[in-house]
Amino acid sequence: MLYQISRFIEQWFSSFKTGSEAFGVGFWNPLTWIIAFIIAFLIVYIIRGMGKSEYKEKTEQTKVFLSGNPEAEKEKMHVKASNVYWGFLETLKWLYKGLDKMHNGNVSDYVLWFVIILGVALLLIGGI
Amino acid sequence: MNGELDLIAEMLKHSPALIVAIPLLGAFLTPLIGKINDKIRNAFAVFIVALTSFFVFLLANDILSNGSIHTYVFGGGPALTEGGFAVRILFEVDGMNAFMAIIASILALAGVIYSWAFMKENTGLDKYYTLILLMIAGMFGMILTGDMFNFFVFLEIASISACALIAFRTNQGKAVDAGFKYIVISAIGALLILFAIALLYSQYNALNMAVLAREIQLTFLDKIALALLIAGLAMKAGIVPMHMWLPDAYGRAPASVTILLVGATQASLYGALRMTSTLYGKNIIAVLKHVDFDLFGQSVVFDITLNGVLGFIILLLAILTIFIGVLMALKETNFKRMIAFAAIAEIGYMILAIGSAFLAVASIDTVTSSAILSQPGYMALKGGIFHILNDALDIGLLFLVAGAIYYATKETSLNKLGGLARNMKYTTIFFLIGLFAVAGMPPLNGFASKILIYESTYQVNPILSIIAILCSILLLAVFVKVFHSAFLGPKQEKFDNVKEAPKSMLIAMGIIACLIIFIGLFPEYVLNNIVTPAADALVNFGNYIHEVDSNYVISLIGGF
Fold first, then answer.
1. Residues B359-384 pLDDT 10s
2. Residue A115 belongs to domain spanning
C-alpha cells in the first residue's frame, strides 16, 4: 500500500517536468498553477485589506455615481443576459440570421439536414 | 482466502453481464419497491447504480491494469455453432469499453443521487426511476457489447427510455415536443444503423464485431454501410448540422436526466469510434481512388485513402460543430439550452482530435493488425479520448448547477435571474469550477485535454488549432455571461427566499467537482492509467479481433 502511494506521488512529481512527452513541448504544472493562484489570492486579499480601513458604510462613499444621473433601483441596475455582448451579436447579425433560420425547431428540417449529411457521406465514402 | 479470491474472480468473470443485468433487473423491481415506500425506492435506485458502478470499477481495474480483454459469451458454450454461423451474443470489453463504462457509471451515479431531492416534487416517480435504470442499462449495453445487432437493441432501449424521460414533465408542453423530436431523430438514426448492420450481415453472415472486423473487404456495400453508420451515430452524438435536437432535448429534460443524456450521446460517439477504428480498422488506409492527371503540363498523382476521406469529413464537421455550438451558446439566454450548445461545441473538440488522428494513420501493421500513427496523431487520439471524460464531467456539472438553480428559483431564463451567489454559495462554487473546467482554464481538467488537442491539431494544420483556441475563449465568454447574469448583481427581491440546493444535489455536484479537480491536478496519472489503454485499444484493433478469433470461433464464416 505504502509502495503504491509512493509510486503515485513519484508519478505525480515526474509529470511536472518541462517538455513532458505527453504534453508536448511546453510547461504544464498543476502545482505551479495552484501556487500562482494562492499568491494571486493573497495579493488580492492584501489590496482588499488596505482599502477596507478607509471604507465608511452609509456615507457618500458608498453612493453610486452615474455622471450626475439618479441611481436606478438595484434590481434594474443588473445588466440582463440578452444585453451582454450586444455589440458582438449586433456585428454578427447577418450570421445569426442564418443560424436562427437553421434552428427553427421544425423536426422536418432537422431530418433534412441529416439527409444532406448522409448524402455527402455516401458520395464521399461510397462514391469515390 | 482462496474462497475470497474465487468470489472476486467469479464476480470479475460475470461482471460484463452483471453491469447490464443489474440495472435492467432493478428497473423492473423499482415499481414493486415503490409500493413499500418512496424513500426505500429512491435508496434502492441509488443502491442499484452503486452496485453496477462497483462492477464497472472492478472490471475496469482489471482491464486497465493488466491490458487484458474480457469476453463474455451469453448462453454458455462456444460463440459460434458449427458451420460458422454466429449465434451467440458476445460482450467484449477492452480498454476503450472500460473507459466509457467508467464515464457512464460516474454520470449515472451522480444523476441518481441528484434525483433524490430534485425530483421529489414530481409525481410518477416509480416510472421515472424505472426509466432511468432502463436508460442506464441501455447505455452500458451499447458500451460493452461486441455484437452489432445487440448494439442496435441497446441503442433503442436507451433512446426510448430517454425519450420518455425528456418528456417526463408532461405538464410542460415543450417537454413533450422535445421528447417527440428526440424519438423521431433517434428512430431515423437507429433505423439507418440497422440498415447498415443488415448490409454487413447479408455479406458476411455475422453480427459479431470482431468477426466482421476480420472479414470486412471494403466492398461497395461496406462503404455504404460505413457512411450509414457514421451519419446515424453522428446524429445521435449531436454533431453539427445534425445537432438541432440536442438543445431541445437537453434543455427540456430534468437536469438529472440531462446528465444521463450526456452519457448516452457519448455512448453514440463511442459507437462511431468503434465502428470506424475497429470494424473498418483493417481497411482504414485502403485506397479508394488513384488520381492521376495533368495540370498545366505537370503530372499530378495521389491516392485518396479511406482515412483521408474520413479525416476530412470529421475535421469539417468538427470545425462546424465547435463554431456553431459556441456562437449559438453566446446568443442563448435560456440557461440549459446555453449549456447544451456549449456541450455541442465540446463534442466538436473531441471529433477535431479524432479527425486529426485519422489523418495521421500512416500504415497498418499486418502482423499485429494495428494502426501506425505519427506521434502527433497518437497524441490527438489520446487528447480526444481524454476530452470525452472531461467533457462528461464539466458539462454534467454545469447541467446539475442549472438544475439546482431551476429547483431553487423555478426559472431558467438568464434574463430573469441575478444575485444568486448570495443565497446559493456552494452552487456558485460548483458553477465556477464547471465554468473554468469547460473553458479549458488551468489547472482544471478541461485544460489538460484541450492542450493535447491544441498541440496535436497544430501539427495537422495550425488554423485548426487557432480556431479551437479562439472558440475556447468564446466558450469562457459564454459562461462569464452566465456567471454575471445568474450569480452576480444586486440582491433581487423575488429571490429573497431562495435557499441553497438540498444535500443530495450538493453531494452529486460535489462528487463531480472533486473529480474535475483531481483530474486537473493529476492529468498525467489519468492519462497514463485510463486514457492511454483506451487509445491503445483503438489503435491495436487486432487484439479485439484476436480475442474472439482465438478463443471462441470454431470455424470460419461462410461455412454455408
1. 888 778 877 778 888 888 888 999 99
2. 97-128
Evaluate whether residue A108 is within a structural domain: yes
Contacts of B223 in chain A (CB under 8 A): 125-126
Query: How wide is the angle at C-alpha B416 spanned by C-alphas B412 and B422, nearest 5°?
Result: 90
> What are the angstrom distances between the C-alpha of B124 and each of A66, B119, B206, B248, B255?
53, 10, 42, 23, 17
For B291, phi then psi, to 5°, come to -105, 130
**How many other CB atoms are there within 10 angstroms of residue B201's CB atom?**
16
Please name the residue ranges forming H helices in A30-106: 30-52, 74-77, 86-91, 93-102
Which pLDDT tens digit goes with each residue over B476-504?
A: 999 999 999 999 988 888 888 889 999 99
Task: Give me the helix-helix angle, B148-166 and B125-144, nearest 10°.
Answer: 150
* Predicted local distance difference test score (pLDDT) of residue B17: 94
Q: Looking at the complex, report in whole angstroms how far the Cα of residue A50 sits from the nearest Cα belonging to chain B.
A: 24
Closest CA to B237 of B339, B396, B344, B325: B344
Q: Which of B223, B244, B420, B518 to substitute to test the interface with A, most A CBs within 10 Å?
A: B244
**Set of cell numbers at residue A50:** 488596505
Please report, as a single letter, which amino acid is at residue B485: S
3-state secondary structure B480-548: HHHHHHHHCCCCCHHHCCCCCCCHHHHHHHHHHHHHHHHHHHCHHHHHHHHHHHHHHHHHCHHHHHHHH
Query: C-alpha distances in angstroms, B448 versus B221, B264, B297, B349, B442?
Result: 40, 24, 49, 13, 8
CA distance B246 to B166: 11
Q: What is the mean pLDDT of chain B?
A: 89
- What is the pTM for the complete model shown? 0.90
Q: Can you read off the three cell numbers belonging to residue B283?
A: 481497411
Question: How far, in Å, CA of B75 to CA of B79, rounded?
Answer: 9
Say if the Cβ atoms of A107 and B185 lie within 8 Å.
yes
Q: Does a structural domain hold residue A106?
A: yes
CA distance B486 to B482: 6
C-alpha B131/C-alpha A31 separation (Å) is 43
Say which of A30, A77, A121 has its CB closest to residue B227.
A121
Overall residue count recorded for chain A in this entry = 128
Least confident of B267-281, B456-470, B538-552: B538-552
DSSP run (H or E) holding A113? helix A107-121
Q: Is the dihedral of CA B67, B234, B128, B391 positive or negative?
A: positive
3-state secondary structure of B337: helix
Rounded to two decimals, the ipTM of the complex is 0.88
From first CA to last CA, the distance across chain A in angstroms is 57
- Report the distance separating Cα A33 and Cα A16, nearest Å: 11
Write down the residue that cell numbers 431515423 correspond to: B188
Q: What distance in Å separates the CA atoms of residue B391 and residue B277, rounded to the nearest whole number?
A: 21
Q: From CA B223, how far away is CA B228, in angstroms rounded? A: 9
Note whether residue A5 is domain-resident.
no
In the three-class reduction of DSSP (H, G, I as helix; E, B as strand; rest coil), residue A47 is classed as helix
B202 to chain A nearest CA, in Å? 18
| Size (chain B), residues | 560
Say how many C-beta atoms besides its own lie within 10 A of residue A68's C-beta: 5
Query: Which single residue is written with the C-alpha cell 448492420?
Result: B197
CB-CB contact of B76 with B517 (8 Å): no
B502 Cβ contact list (under 8 Å, min separation 6): B117, B118, B407
Site from A90, A99, A107, A123 to mutate, B interface, most B CB atoms within 10 angstroms: A107
Evaluate whether residue A56 is within a structural domain.
no
Residue A126 to residue B199: CA distance in whole angstroms: 13
Number of domains in chain A: 1
Query: Which of B489, B490, B524 is facing A15, going by the closest CB pair?
Result: B524
